[in-house]
Amino acid sequence: MSTLSPTAVPATPVADRAVETTRSWKAPIAFAVFTVLAAVLFLGVRRGGTTTFRLANAGDFVQLPDVGLPSLATGVVVVVLLALGTAVAFFLVGRFRPVPLWVTSVFAVVFVVGFLTWAAAGKTIPLPGLLVGAIGLSVPLVFGALGGVISERVGVVNIAIEGQFLAGAFTSALIASLTGSAWVGLIGALVAGVLVSFVLAAFSIKYLVDQVIVGVVINAFISGLTGFLYSQVLSPSETTLNIGIRFPKIEIPVLHQIPVIGPVFFEQTVIVYLAYIAVAVVTFALFKTRWGLRLRAVGEHPEAADTVGINVTGTRFWNVSLAGAIAGLGGAYFTLDAVGPFTKDMTAGAGYIALAAVIFGRWDPIKATLAALLFGFASNLQNTLGAINSPVPSEFLLMLPYVVTIFAVAGLVGQSRGPAASGKPYIKN
After folding, report:
1. How far apart, in whole angstroms, are the C-alpha atoms of residue 163 and residue 206?
2. Which of 30, 142, 159, 184 has minimal CB crowding within 10 Å?
């Protein structure tokens, strides 16, 4: 039996160290594109007026004053800062050094401030409401991204996150309506996610079918199945089978009254708090436990893992199932928290955005969570700007989250390498 310990394998594989000696110009080029876009919008398409940012709610401990930013002056400052950030990125990559995550984060925050100031000129933006909505839209993406990280780290590409979302959403709505308990519905979502993952694991691990093809087929099948059951079962009996039972919000005493961050993090439902816990548990377990070491070993070098006594097939099968259970929680969020009653294809492609968060986050739970938060913020931005009647065209706002997703994955992620054996079936010699 193996005596591997969590420290037996170097934290950074040799292949990763080799990547650091090459240059990837993706991030600097993406920075330059956003800088040019900012100059065109903020300086070329000038908008007068002052944008007011509301920082506090009525029940907060401290009533922070509103902050007003003049649109044109803020645009000039933002463009200058973005140009400096672009120059720093080109300088670092030119010296074969990666662009640090904090540089990318600051660049993104500066651009968002400039865009909000320009798009909402003359209007008031309730910042706590904007962030609360962003967290809400991010929660299913966080669960899906965590499931995707676990699955790909063990060597299986989980394209079926969308199907796991839909199965979790449908099952949780149905079971919660039948039992009158959101908690039972949540357990049903876990089981539904596992069952979908069983299909993915069986075909991709045992029968060696291409993992991407299996995932796409599963998504199409679950979409058709839940759509059929909705129209034939739930829709005719909505008062009994699709009531829309939801978890109530739980306010953490004292903490929920902290300005800005209080309502964002400490005035949420059980599923949101479970997302916080899931991120911490998955991160710790993946990098600090024997389970995580074995999982990563199977995803990097299954032959070596098999040599030291690790059951590669079993490890992959059960961890893909675990990933499906976590993704099922993301599906439950749609019906037990955000919306209530199940509707056909209500996840609207969120599973694919969660998969993009996995890639953008470089197969790391924390970074994938941050990517999910970014995509959730971009999605909620269209709702906020639409609510304040921003003159920005609605078509642009609708495509905004997908544009951010494309740029993030294709540009800002830079050069990275996924698990070496991800997507590759293992045949024991």
Report:
1. 20
2. 184
Q: What's the burial of 44, exposed, middle or buried (CB within 10 Å: 0-12/13-18/19+)?
A: exposed
- pTM for the model stands at 0.84
Contacts of 157 (CB under 8 A, 6+ apart): 151, 211, 212, 215, 422, 423
Q: How far apart (Å, rounded) are the C-alpha atoms in residues 317 and 315?
A: 6
pLDDT-derived band of residue 47, with 50, 70 and 90 as boundaries? confident
- Residue of higher predicted confidence among 157 and 415: 157
The SS3 call for residue 99 is coil
What is the pLDDT confidence band of residue 326, given thresholds at 50, 70 and 90? very high
Tell me the chain's radius of gyration from C-alpha atoms. 23
Per-residue DSSP letter, 113: H
| Type of residue numbered 95 | R
| DSSP codes of every residue in 259-316 | TTHHHHHSEE-HHHHHHHHHHHHHHHHHHHSHHHHHHHHHHH-HHHHHHTT--HHHHH
Tell me how many degrees the CA angle 262-267-273 measures, rounded to the nearest 5: 110
Give 334's DSSP letter.
I
274 CB burial (10 A radius; 0-12, 13-18, 19+): buried
Q: What is the pLDDT of residue 22?
A: 64
- Confirm if 160 and 218 have CB atoms less than 8 A apart: yes
pLDDT tens per residue across span 404-427: 667 666 655 555 677 887 878 887
Checking DSSP bridges between strand 250-251 and strand 50-54, what pairing results, if any?
Answer: unpaired
Whole-angstrom distance, CA of residue 91 vs CA of residue 224: 50
The whole-angstrom separation of Cα 275 and Cα 268 is: 11
Tell me how far apart the alpha carbons of residues 145 and 195 are, in angstroms, rounded to a whole number. 18
User: Picking from 17-21, 241-245, 295-299, 306-310, which range would have the lowest pLDDT averaged per residue?
Assistant: 17-21
**Terminus-to-terminus CA distance in the chain, angstroms?**
19
AA letter at 90: F
CA distance 141 to 143: 5
Cβ neighbours, 10 Å, residue 126: 19
pLDDT of residue 82: 94
Q: Per-residue pLDDT tens for 331-362?
A: 999 999 988 899 998 998 889 989 988 988 88
The pair of three-digit structure tokens given for residue 67, joined into one six-digit string: 């902050």
DSSP H or E stretch at residue 382: helix 365-387
Angle among Cα 402, 407, 408 to the nearest 5 degrees reads 95
